[in-house]
Amino acid sequence: MFARQPLRAGVPAARGKLSVINCSVSNYLSRLLMSFAQYDLHQLAQNIKAWGEALGFQQVGIADIDLSAHEEKLQTWLDNGYHGQMNFMAEHGMKRARPDELLPGTLRVISVRMDYLPPDAKFAQTLKNKDAAYISRYALGRDYHKLLRNRLKKLGEKIRSECTTASFRPFVDSAPVLEHALAEKAGIGWTGKHSLTLNQQGGSWFFLGELFINIPLPVDEPVKEQCGSCNACITICPTQAIVGPYVVDAKRCISYLTIELKGAIPEEFRPLLGNRIYGCDDCQLICPWNRYAQLTNESDFHPREALQAKSLAELSEWDEETFLRATEGSAIRRIGHERWQRNISVALGNAPYSDPTRAALTVLAEQGTELVKEHALWGLKEQERKHAQYITIIDISAHEQDSALLAKHSQRLNQRLIRSVEKGLVRDA
Fold first, then answer.
1. What angle do CA 4, 94, 26 make, to 5 degrees?
2. Average pLDDT of the segment spanning 30-50
C-alpha cells in the first residue's frame, strides 16, 4: 500500500512526507480496528479454522504480513537468475514479500493446506519401468488451482457472513505470493531444504492456498524446523537443482525443464530426466517426513486412468485433439501438445533400446514441430548408441561418453530412490 523505499537522510521534505504517511496509516488502522471492535477475534479465528476443516482443508493457520526477513533472500535469488524464463517473478519483484502491496488493506493471511497424496501412487513401479511415463503425482488428477480457490472463496464468504466489514481475496499460485513463507508463519509447517513446506503429519504432499483478509485476527506460532542435518533431498536430485539448503535453481529443476521451459531442454539435462515427462517428485520421495503423509480425501486428486503408468510409446501417439481431451481439467494441459511431445521424445531416448521406441521417435521426428523434431532426433541418437553397445564395442565421441556417464549416474540415483520408496512407502510403491 505504501512504498518501503529507504528515505535519504537530511531531507526535511522527505521526513515531512513520511510523517504524513505514518499518520495516514495510523488513522486507517485505528478506524479499521474500531470497525472490528464488536467481534471476538479470538473466537472468530477458531471458527475460521473449524469452517476451513469442514471445507476439506487439513490445516488452517493465520499469519501476519511482515515478510521483510525474506526480502533479501528473494532479491538474491532473482539476481542469480534462478527464476529462469519465469520473468513474472522478476517483474513483480518485492511485491511477493509485501502482501499489502498486492492487495491494499490486507492485515492477515489465512494459509491453508490440502493433502493430495493419492492411493495406489505407484511411485516405485512407474520409476522402475523406463518404458512408462512418470508424471508428478500432483498432476495426475484434477487441476488443484480451481478446486482450492473455490474452497477458499467459500471460506471468505462464510467469514463475511459473520463479519460484514470483512474483505478478502483468495490466491492459489495465481499471483506473486510467498506461499511457503506465509505457511511457515501460519504454523502450517517449516520450509525444508528443498524449499517446500514440510509438516509432521502431512510431509510435503499437500497444496497451499492463501486468503488475504483485512481482519486483525490473532496469529499462529511458527513451528520449529526439523530437517536437522539431513541432506537427502539435495543429494538425490538428478540435476542437482538444489544448489544449497533452501535454494533451488529453477533452471536445473526437472519440474521447470518439463513444465515452465518453453524452448529446447538443454542437452546436458536430457539424460537426467529419465522417464519423467511432467514434473518430478524425487526430493519429496526421499524425504523421511513423507513416511507420515496421509492419503487425500479428495477423489478429484486420484489418478486418471488415461495418465497413470501409461507407456511412452502410447502417449507419443496422441494427436493434439486426444491430448486436449485427456487433459481436460488437468494441470498438464497448460504445457500444450508441443511441449508434451518434446518431453516424451526425451523420455523415449532415455528408455531401453527397442524397435517400438525407435518407431515412435521416428514418427515424432517426421511429423512433429521443429522443437519436437530436435528432441526426437536426439532420442533416436541415444537409441542408436544403446543398440550399438549391445552389438559390439565401438569407439564413441567424448560427448557421447559424457552422455552415457550422466545416464548411468542418473540410473544409480534412481535405483537408490526406488529402494527408499519400497522400504519406507510400501503402500505407494
1. 35
2. 80
Percent of the chain with pLDDT over 90: 73
Active-site positions read 173
Residue 297 φ/ψ region, left for φ over 0, alpha for ψ in the -120 to 50 degree band, beta for the rest: alpha
The least confident of 25-34, 118-127, 178-187 is: 25-34
Average pLDDT, the chain: 88
Residue spans per domain, the chain: 40-117+139-213, 312-391
**pLDDT for residue 393:** 46
